[in-house]
Amino acid sequence: MAADALLRHGSVLPGLGLLVVLAACSPLAGGPADVPVATATTAPAASFPVSDQHDRIVAQYGGVYRDAELERTLARIVGRLVAASDDPSRSYAITILNSSSVNAFALPEGYLYVTRGLLTLAADASEVAAVLAHEMAHVTADHAAQRQNQALTAAIVDNVVTDAVAGGPEAQIAVATSQRTLASFSQQQELEADIIGIRTVARAGYDPYAASRFLAAMARFDLYRNAVGGEEVSEADFLASHPSNPQRIALAVSTAQTYGAPGTGEVDRDRYLAGLDGIVFGDDTAQGFVRGLDFYHTGLGIAFAVTPGFSLDNTQAAVLAVGADGTALRFDSATLRAGETLDAYLRSGWVNGLQTGTIRPLTIAGLPAVSASAAAGGWQFRLVLIQVGQEAYRFIFANARASAAFEEAATVIPASFRILTPAERASIGPLRLSIATARNGDTVASLSAAMTGVANAAELFMLLNGFDTATAIPAGTRVKLVVE
Fold this sequence. Notes:
Blueprint (H helix, E strand, L loop, with lengths): L1 H5 L47 H7 L7 H17 L8 E5 L6 E3 L4 E5 H6 L3 H16 L2 H22 L4 H35 L6 H20 L15 H13 L11 H8 L3 E2 L7 E3 L2 E4 L4 E4 L5 E4 L4 E4 L5 E8 L6 H5 L7 E11 L2 E10 L2 E10 L2 E9 L4 H12 L2 E2 L2 H6 L3 E7 L6 H5 L8 H9 L12 E6 L1
Parallel strand pairs: 1-3
Antiparallel strand pairs: 2-3, 4-16, 5-6, 6-7, 7-15, 8-9, 9-10, 10-14, 11-12, 12-13, 13-14, 16-17
């Protein structure tokens, strides 16, 4: 909100596409001998229905993640699900998106999308099957078309009611009621897809309890990320389009019970992990990535560090950080016009409340830079712009008041900006999952000690591997480790 108060025109860090919210769900947004499978695709095949959204989705989610073995693993899972589905004649094309977010969704034409982040979180093939079966259920139940109709209905209700009562309290109450009705219907779609998906998973010979396990894993992963990032965990909004996790987990368990006791069906863990070995974990270095207090972007050849107390988040649109005192930081970039100076760009009108008397020239890492202050919307801002070629890299700090800590952060953090050397760019690589085999006496503590580049390694190890307690791990168990 602070950045919105300041910026008249937003910019995007090169290499990070703008994220557009899709009319799709979050996972569960989301045996038998192998069946001839649908082909995992990274582009529409000539015989597959063309979607005008496919290329846009791929671009918005960091491109396609290419891994032939992993694609074969997913195609095998999809093939089993299609054969067991309510409509085995329907074709699907699955694409792995190069994003660390945990998400999956589908388009009506039969395009299935799953993010790299979701695949790293899933403990076995049955959990991935549960996610994909849920998304396939949205396709077969024609939920996407229903959601489009809902959105149109909501807009009509908004306009009609507001016009009828001149936008007074009655209009607000009526519109809120219509939104609750529509949100409830969307929740029913999610629950319906859960039930259809679990039925499909069970028919395909997978563990029907996989859906409840993965829902629980997502809830734990959210808590882990919030704890690591220092963010407060908030309750779900009442108008959220998805039911709460406890509600969905309870329904998933009760639905699975109709197909047998726990332990029913195949989890196919070892073969799934074999396909997952070596997958990038977290941010891809080509898109910029966070290591503790440091941000690196090897594609652009830049880096900077935040001060202790800040938590960093590399989003699709910008790098964001929040300090312990409430200071917010946005780091992004804008392209300068030919011959345009930083001073001229700063005065060009994109900053609300710019205090022109505070503009000062600087030199940071041998590069031309400029700093300034602004005040808008009840917020205090400090801006530092650094020029690299035709790019102006922008540090934008915001706080409700100009405290000493705020001023220090706005000085120290931009001063850490630097250009990576060729050797650094070549040596810095992404984190990856490595599949290891537990030996006699191995525990969560001993195995997680081998993980690098992550916070609270033991908790993350248990999350990634579906372990609930830090107990001994049977020898021969295949496990995921995060390594550099």
